[in-house]
Design goal:
Layout (H helix, E strand, L loop, with lengths): L2 H19 L5 H4 L3 E8 L5 E8 L4 H10 L1 H11 L7 E6 L2 H24 L1
Parallel strand pairs: 2-3
Antiparallel strand pairs: 1-2
Length: 120
């Protein structure tokens, strides 16, 4: 399969899974802000890694909720995307947003320290 097609499928999966998650009735997922940050489908489209980020103290609970709803999510993907094979879903917690926020906080602290030193 051409790389550009796999990229288009990954982008379409991000969009569709983001929409589908809003309809999940599991309180571990529906009560939180869950963001799909990326999808990585295998070349044969049998497997898909779905990277998500959630604003919570318990990312394992969100993952359990997503795993329990994976049948529903997979069924909706099959209905919405015209693929021969609907991939098996694996959910992976993406910490890049939290790391970026932490780095921004550290940079802000350094900037504030420099401003304080210039004032003194």
């Amino acid at each position: 399969m051409a790389k550009y097609r796999q990229g288009r499928i990954n982008e379409a999966m991000v969009k569709e899974v983001s929409d589908i998650i809003r309809g999940v009735k599991d309180p571990r997922v529906s009560d939180l802000l869950v963001t799909i940050t990326g999808v990585d489908c295998s070349a044969d489209l049998k497997f898909a890694k779905i990277y998500y980020s959630a604003v919570t103290d318990e990312p394992t609970e969100v993952e359990k909720g997503l795993i329990s709803a994976s049948g529903y999510i997979r069924t909706q993907i099959a209905e919405r995307l015209n693929l021969r094979i609907t991939p098996e879903l694996k959910f992976i917690h993406d910490t890049s947003i939290e790391k970026g926020a932490h780095i921004a906080k550290l940079l802000k602290q350094v900037e504030d320290d420099l401003v304080d030193r210039e004032d003194n």
